[in-house]
Amino acid sequence: MVPHLTGGDLVAAGPPEPTPRPGDLLVFVQQDYLVVHRYLGAARDPSGRPCLRTRGDGRNELDPAVSHGAVRARVVAIRRAGVWRSLEGVGPATYARLVAWHDLFWSSAGIAGRKVGLGRAASVLDRAVLRVAAALLFAPLHARIEAPDATVPESPV
C-alpha cells in the first residue's frame, strides 16, 4: 500500500459497508491473514460469481477475486508519521476514487507493458505518479483527527 501505508503505520477500521465505494480501503482475509487493499469495483470471479476487485496501491497487478464474505472491515482512519488522518468526508472520498482510477489504469498498463517487455517501466511510472499525488494531495484532503478509541472488539475481526 506504499505510499499510503508503510511499515509502522496504523489503521482504524469500522464495520464494512454493504456496498463498498470505489477507493475504500478494505480489510479482508486472504489465505490465512488479513490484508488492507483498495476496493476498485465490482467484478465476477472465473466461475461467474460476484466478487470484489482490489489492489494494493503501488502494486502492478490486481488481487485475486475477493468474495464479499472475506471482507472484515473498512478503514476509517490511518496514522502516518505519528499523525492520525480521517478517511471520511468529501475530500478523502474524492482522493480515494482518484486513486482507485489510477490503480485500474496502471494495472491495465502493467498487463500491456509486460506483453511488450515494458512491465518494469509501467511499474516504475505507476509508483512515481502515486508518490507524487500522495505527497501533494493526501495531507490537504485528509483532516487531522485525535487518535481513535483503541478498544478491542469482543470477537476477532
Short description:
This protein is of the alpha+beta class.
Structure description:
The protein has one domain. Helix 1 runs antiparallel to helix 2. The chain is globular, with a radius of gyration of 16 Å. With 157 residues, the chain is of the alpha+beta class. The longest helix has 26 residues, at 90-115. It has helices spanning 90-115, 119-141; strands spanning 10-14, 25-30, 33-44, 50-55, 71-80, 83-86.
- The Cα radius of gyration reads 16 Å
Distance between the termini: 20 Å
Q: Which percent bin holds the helix content?
A: 25-40%
Q: What class do helices, strands and sheet pairing give?
A: alpha+beta
Q: DSSP strand (E) fraction?
A: 25-35%
Major beta sheet, specifics? 6 strands, antiparallel
Number of helices: 2
Shape: globular
Please give the number of β-strands.
6
List the secondary-structure elements in sequence, H or E. EEEEEEHH
Total domains, how many? 1
- By oligomeric state, this entry counts as single chain
Low-confidence stretches: none
Write down the overall mean pLDDT. 92
Topology:
Layout: E1 10-14, E2 25-30, E3 33-44, E4 50-55, E5 71-80, E6 83-86, H1 90-115, H2 119-141
Antiparallel strand pairs: 1-5, 2-3, 2-5, 3-4, 5-6
